[in-house]
Write a structure and sequence with these properties.
- By secondary structure, the chain is mostly beta strands.
- The protein has 2 domains: 427 residues, TolB, C-terminal domain (Neuraminidase, 6 Propeller), CATH 2.120.10; 39 residues, no CATH class.
- Helix content is 4%, strand content 37%.
- It contains 3 helices and 35 strands.
- It has a 5-stranded antiparallel β-sheet with strand order 1-30-29-28-27, with no helix packed on it. Strands 4-3-2-31 form a 4-stranded antiparallel β-sheet, with no helix packed on it. A 4-stranded antiparallel β-sheet has the order 5-6-7-8, with no helix packed on it.
- A hairpin with a 5-residue loop joins strand 27 and strand 28.
- The longest helix is centred in the middle third of the chain and has 9 residues.
- The protein starts with 9 loop residues before the first strand and ends in a 6-residue tail after the last strand.
Length: 477
């Protein structure tokens, strides 16, 4: 990947007539949870609130976490999961999953939540017509961690993924553990060999292997497949994706068994070969009923590096043996595996065609289907969130201005768009178009540009203030 050192932040493109207008929530790097309007104005910032991911609920409520476990002992473990009102008051909190006694730390209960959770009433955590998440009652599904030792998987201690369901009053009523189903995932002997030795070691000097690394989890919700009699797609069943293993799977809520799966190998059928390898993916979910594409699977196919298998020139030991240097958004039929829509640098018609870094985020990221058929994409590694039409036109683009304490990264884990009415505390803001800047003629202040007979002369200038834009007025930049 490559990126310029200097570039604008905030809203850089906005076409109000083609956008699904509303508020956008995202985790502001090492700052809090931020909500912006379509012009990039901050309408609310909950400082100190973690967002892994942040989620807005109707009524101006927000969900996130108030703390994270010390990285010396845990990996991405959030200490709790909370719901705050618009003023920042805690209206719900859960932290009673596991009692943790880390050396040198005060013992405490933790939720160990990571990457995802879902509040009852809505299957995916973003707006879908007629499926509002509950705000004063209801159960919550939580994706979390558990430390295990399982010599069937690896000779090293492992960080396992679990999903549990907790009531509004804090009672855990259901739990599913990933390692219990290892033999059902279809790893080849080469993959098992690589996984046994290199199970994606994390925490300090590699004390535990985050072998599956599930990074999204949601229920399917009402869908046409179940209506047509396919029991694999029961509305209560849960879809998740394991980034490190390149697996997307659906578990039967009642039995816990895997009832649908693609990966870890995408060469076993002509349908998968046509789709192409999904690598290091994030946010695989079923598009909810009431939205264009309902019933299809939407996923941010990161590319980058992931998987276990045979060694190759990019992986001498078979760990992270699947490699691709660009990202894709895929929408596909879960029954036929036919890709019905996608977005990549090729679909964006970028010139030159080899410019694969135009859209590439090997880590984090997400995709949300909007009610007007557009898709909100979080290209997380670059701190970029943009809205694209079905015809691949970018109609809104936003770059996070939050770079954290060291000022080196503005990455965004996941962003969501919600309707204006979900935040009744705010009036609907003005929607002011932001036209795409012609970057071939855009210059930062501080220089004077003169053109004589097609030759541009550049010299130091003193007349440009820090807020002025300097643009070269020429047909030959």
């Amino acid at each position: 990947m490559s990126a310029p050192n200097v570039y604008p932040t905030g809203t850089t493109i906005y076409n109000p007539d083609k956008c699904c207008n509303g508020f956008t929530v995202y985790p502001a790097k090492q700052t809090g949870i931020s909500v912006v309007d379509m012009n990039g104005n901050v309408v609310r910032l909950w400082k100190g609130l973690q967002g892994f991911p942040p989620k807005l609920l109707p009524g101006g409520f927000v969900m996130g976490s108030l703390g994270v476990r010390d990285k010396k002992f845990g990996h991405q473990d959030q200490t709790d999961l909370v719901q705050l009102d618009w003023e920042g008051n805690i209206v719900w909190k859960f932290d009673q999953y596991e009692f943790i006694e880390d050396p040198g730390k005060d013992p405490m209960w933790m939720a160990r939540q990571h990457h995802d959770y879902q509040r009852e009433g809505n299957p995916v955590g973003y707006y879908a017509p007629g499926m509002d998440p509950l705000t004063d009652k209801g159960n919550t599904l939580i994706l979390a961690h558990k430390d295990i030792v399982d010599p069937n998987i690896s000779g090293k201690p492992l960080l396992d993924d679990v999903i549990y369901e907790v009531t509004w009053d804090g009672d855990i009523t259901w739990e599913w553990q990933c390692s219990d189903h290892f033999d059902a995932f279809g790893f080849s002997e080469e993959a098992k060999n690589a996984l046994y030795r290199y199970p994606h070691m994390v925490i300090g000097k590699g004390e535990r292997g985050d072998w599956m690394h599930i990074n999204s989890m949601s229920t399917l919700g009402p869908n046409r497949w179940y209506d047509d009699g396919d029991k694999r797609f029961h509305p209560d069943n849960i879809i998740w994706d394991g980034r490190q293993a390149n697996i997307i799977a659906i578990i039967d809520k009642e039995s816990g068994n895997i009832v649908w799966q693609i990966g870890p190998d995408y060469s076993h059928s002509k349908e998968l070969r046509k789709m192409g390898w999904i690598i290091g993916q994030h946010h695989a979910h079923m598009i909810p009923r009431g939205l264009p594409g309902e019933g299809n699977i939407l996923v941010f196919d990161n590319g980058g590096f992931a998987g276990y298998g045979a060694p190759n020139p990019g992986s001498f030991n078979g760990y992270n043996n699947a490699l691709r240097d660009y990202s894709r958004i895929l929408e596909f039929n879960p029954v036929t595996l036919e890709v019905v829509w996608q977005y990549s640098y090729l679909d964006a018609n970028v010139q030159p065609r080899m410019n694969n870094t135009y859209f590439y985020s090997p880590l984090v990221s997400s995709a949300q289907r909007l009610v007007n058929g557009n898709t909100l994409i979080t290209e997380g590694s670059n701190g970029r969130v943009f809205e694209v039409t079905a015809d691949h036109e970018i109609v809104w683009e936003y770059i996070s201005p939050y770079f954290g304490e060291k000022g080196t990264s503005n990455d965004i884990y996941r962003a969501y768009r919600v309707p204006y009415e979900w935040i009744p505390q705010m009036e609907q803001p003005k929607e002011i178009a932001v036209n795409r800047i012609d970057i071939s003629r855009y210059r930062v202040p501080g220089f004077e540009y003169k053109e004589e007979q097609g030759v541009i002369e550049i010299s130091e200038a003193t007349g440009f203030g820090p807020s002025q834009n300097c643009v070269v007025d020429t047909d030959e930049p």
